[in-house]
Amino acid sequence: VQLQASGGGSVHTGGSLKLSCAASGLSSISDLVMGWYRQAPGSQRELVAVAGAGNRIIYGDSVKGRFTITRDDAKAMSYLQMNDLKPEDTAVYYCVMESWWGQGTLVTVSS
Predict the structure, then answer these.
(1) What confidence tens digit (pLDDT) does each residue in 7-57 have?
(2) Measured on CA atoms in the order 3, 7, 9, 13, is the torsion positive or negative?
């Protein structure tokens, strides 16, 4: 199984980015949990959002109301729409699926 994250970059406060994660190596992902974690320099990894089967979704407290996770099981993709970005959102964002982790994509938010 491979997870390929993309879409990171640099934005100013209040900007938006959309991350994408492409999963490969499985015939179906519809029953699997997909999501995003992040890790800022000097900090522990934290939950951003996860989406389970049946579109059960959990968001980390710090991103509620600003970030939206979606998934397209037919394409084996998950997405993270990030709006109203803040400097504290600066981190490496990791795509995850069950116990598999992608390589991470860097998001930098400057004030």
Answers:
(1) 999 999 999 999 999 999 988 888 999 999 999 999 999 999 999 987 799
(2) negative
**CB pairs under 8 A, 24+ apart, for 87-92?**
87/13, 87/111, 88/40, 88/62, 89/38, 89/63, 90/40, 91/38, 91/39, 91/40, 91/41, 91/43, 92/38, 92/39, 92/40
| Residue 96 pLDDT class (50, 70, 90 cuts) | very high
Q: Which residue(s) pair with 6 in the sheet? A: 20
Question: In degrees to the nearest 10, what's the CA dihedral of 21, 37, 107, 28?
Answer: 0
23-18-101 Cα angle (round to 5): 35
Q: Would you state the pLDDT for residue 64?
A: 98
